[in-house]
Amino acid sequence: MIVLGAVCPSPPLMARELTGSADVLPELRAASAAAVSALLAAAPDVVMVVGAGPATATWDPDSRLDLSAYAPVLGTDGKSGLPLALGLGAMLLDAAGYVGPRVLQAVGETEAPAECLRLGASLPHLAPRVALLAMGDGSARRGVAAPGHLDRRAAPFDASVERALRDDDMAALASLDPGLASDLLASGRAAWQVLAGALSAPGAADAPASQILYAGAPLGVSYLVVVLGPRGR
Amino acid sequence: MSGLPGPREPGPLVLRGRSFPPGRLLVMAIVNRTPDSFYRPGLTWDEGAALERVHQVVAEGADMLDVGGVPAKPGAEVTALEEMRRVVPFIAAVRAAYPDLVISADTWRHEVGRAACEAGADLLNDTWGGWDPELTEVAAEFGAGLVCSHAGGLPPRTRPFRVSYPDVVADVLDRVLGLADRAVRTGVDPAGIIIDPAHDFGKNSWHSLEITRRLGELTATGWPVLMSASRKDFVGETLGTGVDDRLSGTLAVTAVGAWLGARIFRAHDVAQTRQALDMVAAIRGDLVPARMVRGLA
Predict the structure, then answer these.
(1) B146 forms bridges with which residues in the sheet?
(2) Beta-bridge partners for A22
(3) With an 8 Å Cβ cutoff, is A22 touching chain B?
């Protein structure tokens, strides 16, 4: 079963090393840490990290994010790094002191919703107690200063995602349009649809309340931190 | 250079107990107790104005002061007594106000150096290249640092006249390393010895460009290198600008010098120099940038 699910953001600036002297968006990092703490408090047998990658594949659980790809001055150990979303998920688990089993599951950025849902539906069976950490973000076109400049479709898209997560409306997540998400640079679409597949698996309990720990787009990119209640039996 | 010691391992610069690691770029703020220096003459002639400038440059990020009482250019004689009258009480006042700030006395005279050290100076900036050898002994006696400069053998307060060098950098190295070696043998703490090619001193502007371009040969010696280029004539002659319009050129020289390994920068424009040096330090990877968000959101 899925003992708990969480959604966390995946901007590089989640890595404290990348922002220089300034602690940029400490509240975002704190909310993410709180979400991961909640996941771990559910005593999972395994933590499943899902995030966008070049293709749908699992990665070596001992791999980490290569920060030097973003800040060459930080240097590298020479090992190939994880895709950003998985790397930040691994970083959150490390920061929480988690040393138990983890699965790092990339989902292809352009993976079709049906494939994402199918992948998600298989997750509750991984172990008796599975915690699911979905790493990804909403649009990056929330204003003229946003990385992707302003797109009028961005705010409604992000609002729909936030609403779906708050209301545990997995069907709404499942129906997000990959084309629109891609237009809006919303990196979280595929991972959220894996989450939707996992949390709407047969046998899931009735929707317990989800908790939004952070929702905002302070830098023009929509970030969400959400904890979703247990499912399955 | 034969007979001089080889390169030394770069270490911390230590000035009467205050230590600065090799990666740190230091700003030495100019405070002239003169009525007639070349840039903004008389700016800090008044003691109140001079103290006010100290407060300002400290706030702007200066790591040390360089207090001088005699302009480099020729002009009315300033006796040792008059020089002391200009700088010594002022150094004492700054020392009282800033117990931990490094104070350099810009003088070639040992009598002035002695009085300055007694008043609290930590470093003797001997810009005229060892004209008065007893200054080295004063540095040794007080445990003060010493700047070993190249002035082409010119007497203090004289301008270069048709100077030529087969190789100006070789001449600079020969002179400053010779002075540094003599200082060590005299008992000056090696950790407090600085070398300075002294732009414009005993040099035409081509020579100053050359020592800037080849500054790496000085920094390769391992001695901390002082760059004293602020608003000098070689900047003005290169860019065709008057003294009031030499900041950009000075900052370019500063950046190149920092990149090539110079560690101390004597400056009129402290805030701008600090920014230029911080930028270079960040490029080198020696300084953590202030706030990085671009492309990372």
Answers:
(1) B124, B193
(2) none
(3) yes
Under 8 Å CB-to-CB from B166, ≥6 apart: which residues? none
Indicate if the alpha-carbon torsion angle B75, B80, B82, B84 is positive or negative: positive
pLDDT, tens digit (0-9, with 9 covering 90-100), for A116-160: 999 999 999 999 999 999 999 999 999 999 999 999 999 999 999
Asked if A150 contacts A144 with a C-beta cutoff of 8 angstroms, the reply is yes
Q: Which of A19, A219, A220 has the CB atom closest to B292's CB atom?
A: A19
CA B169, B172, B176, B182 torsion: positive or negative? positive
List, in order, residues 6 or more apart from B76 with CB less than 8 Å away: B36
This prediction has a pTM of 0.89
Q: What share of chain A is helix, strand, coil (3-state, %, to 5)?
A: 40, 20, 45
Q: Which residue has the tokens 């005279």?
A: B109
Given a contact cutoff of 8 angstroms between Cβ atoms, the answer to whether A195 and A136 are in contact is no
Lowest mean pLDDT among A78-87, A211-220, B116-125, B214-223: A78-87
Picking from B285, B289, B296, the nearest residue to A12 by CB comes out as B296
Distances (CA, A) of A132 to A51, B75, B263: 11, 80, 52
Closest Cα in chain B to A74? B285
Determine the distance in angstroms separating the CA of B63 from the nearest CA of chain A, rounded to an integer. 21
ipTM of this complex > 0.85? yes
**pLDDT averaged per 10 residues, chain B (length 297):** 71 96 96 91 90 97 97 94 97 97 98 98 97 97 98 94 95 98 98 98 96 98 98 97 97 98 98 98 95 96
**CA nearest neighbour of B223 among B253, B201, B197, B186:** B197
With an 8 Å Cβ cutoff, is B242 touching chain A? no
B291 contacts A19? CB cut-off 8 A: yes
The pLDDT score that the predictor gives to residue A80 is 78
Residue A178's Cβ-count burial label (10 Å; 0-12, 13-18, 19+) is middle
**CA proximity to A51, closest of A18, A6, A21:** A6
Contact B297, A13 (CB under 8 A): yes
Told to judge if B266 belongs to the known catalytic residues of this protein, a careful annotator would answer: yes
Instruction: Decide: A192 and A169 in contact? Cβ < 8 Å.
Output: no
Q: Does B290 sit within 8 Å of A219, measured CB to CB? A: no
Residue A143 contacts B where some CB pair is shorter than 8 Å: no
Report the residue from A11, A22, A147 with minimal CB separation from B291.
A22
**How far, in whole angstroms, is CA B178 from its chain's centroid?**
18
